[in-house]
Amino acid sequence: MMGQEVPGSVQFWNSLTTHCGKAYEGVIVAGGKEGDGFTGEKLIMYVRSCGENEIRIPFFVGEDKSRTWVLTKGDDNLILLKHDHRKRDGSDDEVTQYGGLSPNTGLAGIQFFPADQFTSNLLAHASNNVWWITLDDTSFTYNLRRIGSERFFSVKFDLSKEMDRPSAPWGSED
Questions:
Q1: What share of the chain is helix, strand, coil (3-state, %, to 5)?
Q2: Are 135 and 15 in contact (CB under 8 A)?
Q3: From CA 1, how far away is CA 36, in angstroms rounded?
Q4: Widest CA span of the chain, in angstroms?
Q5: 104-115 burial, b if ≥16 CB within 10 A, otherwise e?
Q6: What torsion, rounded to 10 degrees, do the Cα atoms 142, 113, 69, 48 define?
Q7: FRET label pair with 72: which of 19, 58, 131, 148, CA 20 to 30 Å apart?
Q8: Which domain of life does the UniProt lineage start with (predicted)?
Q9: Domain locations in the chain?
Q10: Going by C-beta distance under 8 Å and a sequence separation of 6 or more, which residues neighbour residue 15?
Q11: Of 71, 55, 18, 61, nearest in space to 40 by CA
C-alpha cells in the first residue's frame, strides 16, 4: 500500500477553494435547447463562500438567481452535491435540495454524484440522474446525465477569465 496520499476529493476541494470569491462566465456545451430557460442567457458561476466543510456556488441564469450548488465534505472525505433552489423572495422552491453523495473519493479533477433517495422521492424522473463536476486549471464543468434516457446537460465555465462579482443569490442575507 502506498503512503498517506491525499484523496482525490480533498485535492478537488482544495482546488475549488482557490476560486473562492471569484465569478466566471459559462457556455452550454451539450443539451441546450431553444426555450429551455438556459439557452441564450448569460450563465455565471460565483464561488461565493468556502467553509471548511461547505462550498456554496450560486449559478445564475440571466436574471434568475434561484440556483445555488452546495458542496458539503463529510468526515470520510466524500462530497455531497445539493441544488438549493429559492424563489425571488428567498423562500425555498417546491423543488430544492436534490442531488447526491459521491460514492467514493473520486479523482482530483472529477467528482460524481448519483441521485440520492431524497432526490428519488422528490422527483421520480430524476432517480437515475448522475451529476458530475470536472475541474482543472482552466475550466469548471457542471454536467447532468439521466441514465437510460437521452437527457444530457453540460455547462463549461472559463476559469482563466475572472469577471466582476455578481450580487447575492435569492435568499441570501447580503
A1: 10, 45, 45
A2: yes
A3: 49
A4: 53
A5: ebbebeebbbbb
A6: -80
A7: 148
A8: Bacteria
A9: 8-156
A10: 108, 135
A11: 61
- C-alpha to C-alpha distance for 48 and 98, rounded to whole angstroms: 20
* 55, 47 contact by CB (below 8 A): yes
DSSP category for residue 7: P
**pTM greater than 0.85 (yes/no):** yes
**Dist CA 123 CA 144 (whole Å):** 15
User: What is the β-pairing status of strands 79-85 and 98-101?
Assistant: antiparallel
Per-residue pLDDT tens digits for 61-102: 999 999 999 999 999 999 999 999 999 999 999 999 999 999
